[in-house]
Amino acid sequence: MRLLTLFIFLIIISTACSTTTVYIVRHAEKVNETDTTDLTPAGYVRAAALAETLGKAGIDSIFSTPYYRTRQTAQALAKHIGVPVVDYAPKPTEAIVNRVKTIRGKKVLVVGHSNTILEIARGLGAKPTLAKIESGDFDNLFRVTRHHGPFRRSVTFVATTYGQQTAP
């Protein structure tokens, strides 16, 4: 009986553990400031670089705001791995943060905007050192790893870049 109880306890503890990795990027280079703008040729190159960078990361879900530039940024990866792009409203960021927080044990990509990606990272418990994303910065790749254990939770944050840096 004791062995069975220990076995059940270990199963409960192991199912309570999970690690979720969330990659957060801003859309790639855009033609102009309108909501319906496309990516520039450099933006399409960057979107392809994102697909190459995350193509073997095991992404399970891709979230994008409904704007052309964000969907186009996500599309190369989505096509490469066969995962659909799911729209989310850019504001309030709490909506996507709360949605991502419900995902356990998966790897997720969120494509947003210069004025939302840091908020999303912070909402997930990360502590980015950047104060803001500059208008010409399109190469940030943030990785937020959320570990849920039976007795504690932890969040790690890694800021890297992907693709080639574009001229200002």
UniProtKB/TrEMBL annotation:
It comes from Spirosoma fluviale. SMART domains: PGAM (SM00855). This is Histidine phosphatase superfamily (Branch 1). It holds the Pfam family His_Phos_1.
